[in-house]
Amino acid sequence: MFLQPLKYDEPLFRPPGEARSAILQVTTGCSWNKCAFCEMYASKKFKIKSFEELEPEIKILADFYRGVSKKIFLADGDAFVLSAKRLIPVLKEIRNRFGRLQRISSYAMPKDVLSKSDDELKELRALGLKLLYIGIESGDDELLRLVNKGETFNSTVEGIKKAHNAGIDTSIMIINGLGGKNYSEQHAIKSAEIINQVNPKFLSTLTLSMPYGHEHFQERFKGEYVQQTIVELYKELRIFIENLNVENVIYRSNHVSNNLILEGTLSKDNPRMLKQIDEAIKGTPGHLKPSASLFL
Ligand code: SF4
Fold this sequence. Notes:
Blueprint: E1 22-25, E2 27-28, E3 47-48, H1 51-64, E4 71-75, H2 84-97, E5 103-107, H3 110-114, H4 118-126, E6 129-137, H5 141-146, H6 153-165, E7 169-176, H7 180-198, E8 202-207, H8 214-220, H9 230-242, E9 249-253, E10 262-266, H10 270-283
Parallel strand pairs: 1-4, 4-5, 5-6, 6-7, 7-8, 8-9
Antiparallel strand pairs: 2-3, 9-10
The chain binds iron/sulfur cluster (SF4).
């Protein structure tokens, strides 16, 4: 764990790409907090911090990083739920304190983007908000409903395109194995379709983890969840990748939950990655993925 300049409300999560960023916790918890597969903020009551609370924290961060941290990540779950009216003074204060700032980023849900006007998004972009991490998890409407994601294929496409139109890049996450055996193929195909429509800058796949076990997940999943073997998860990933048709998307499948590490630029590196998946399928015994693993 890195040295922390602030006393954060734990647990604190951030994307792997923000490992060196200064983290400002503008909210605690997640405003939605209902996704069947996510227990990240189950212990927290959602709260938005006031500007008066955040101002001294920004100063502490700036003093700690001597104002030279190039990236700031806004936590927690979907910090972008804050209205533009609340975000703008926070971003201005960050810019005042950090001289060589390159980027501010945050987790977001598509509905957080859609709740802001085009002009508000452009103003946030001009203040340094350049990247949103959006866990869309799947492009399949049936599965999105079963996991209670609170978004649809259309709302997701609209939200992501609206961010892109304002000049804000996105990093999109898909969960391999989200629907188990019964929904595997439709999940892979519709997830590729949604990525093809939005062409994000970054894409990553995680693998479904069940830190509280299979039965606990089944209770939260609104369909019949049938666990997949590791080989079945690879086959699902293969369908997803072979259906992708995008340009210059930086793809990573290097999360701790993944059994197979893949990295490349889509679609240029698709053939190499498909070959890697085929080799993994050939060389892996057909056992189930362990249900308990680290969530982060
Ligand atoms: S996956 Fe994201 S939106 Fe869903 S409960 Fe977790 S943090 Fe909130």
